[in-house]
Amino acid sequence: MRIVIKIGTSTLAHKTGRINIRRVEELCKVMSDLKNAGNEIILVSSGAIGMGVGKLSLTGKPSDIPTKQAAAAVGQCELMYVYDKLFAEYNHTVAQILITGEDIEYTDRRINFENTIRRLLELNAIPILNENDSIATKEIVIGDNDTLGAIVATTVEADLLIILSDIDGLFTADPHKNKDAVLLRKVNIIDESIESMTDDAGSELGTGGMHTKIGAAKIATEHGIDMVIANGSDPKILYDIVEGKDAGTRFFARKDEKN
Ligand code: GLU
Questions:
Q1: Domain that holds residue 118
Q2: C-alpha torsion sign, points 114, 77, 163, 1
Q3: Is residue 56 part of a domain?
Q4: The domain spanning residue 157 has which CATH number?
Q5: How high does pLDDT run on average in the chain?
């Protein structure tokens, strides 16, 4: 299977912005194993701004653009250093691709981006993508990595998109506010009732909330790709998801659109 895995900041970093070493080590181990089993893995990783905040000892997520972009520049180095080190332990090679909205919007750039990922997969490398937060301005920003994950999944015609976050999946209501909220295991059609279950609050250091995740699910399923939202706190959940077991919330590809 060709699998795009999007990992959110809240999964990769502690609230301080410093890397969650135990979690990231386990994630890289499981993803390496899935790759060893014959799957192709493409990673969409957040965490640049969060880790920049941690490394520069800033007090929280910056509100001004130059500091945010500076934090991303520092954090992106840290992020790739860690991925390179941990995947290398399992003999895998990583590759960094940073993009902005313009790289998707303009056909020639999009084709280049697609060709690069396809070639990296042929060369057996693990492409790791993030938005180029240090140069993206309001006009050209994609804005969140849930959407980026869905765009990447459709571009490379993935079989599965997995979004790892700090929530177990899609609930009928916000589980932090409503104790009667129920986790939905399967979603066949994303209609108004599903969309009304979302909010748009992101985590402290990340960007997207459930709203952007549902948006990503719409893009993926309309292109014939299943998408799963799951809690990344135990990375072994990736095994269950890939094996098609009940884990998180699975949004099923529109049958008429299967690629
Ligand atoms: N690109 C941002 C980062 O690396 C994250 C965006 C998101 O959380 O969706 O910090």
A1: 2-251
A2: positive
A3: yes
A4: 3.40.1160.10
A5: 91
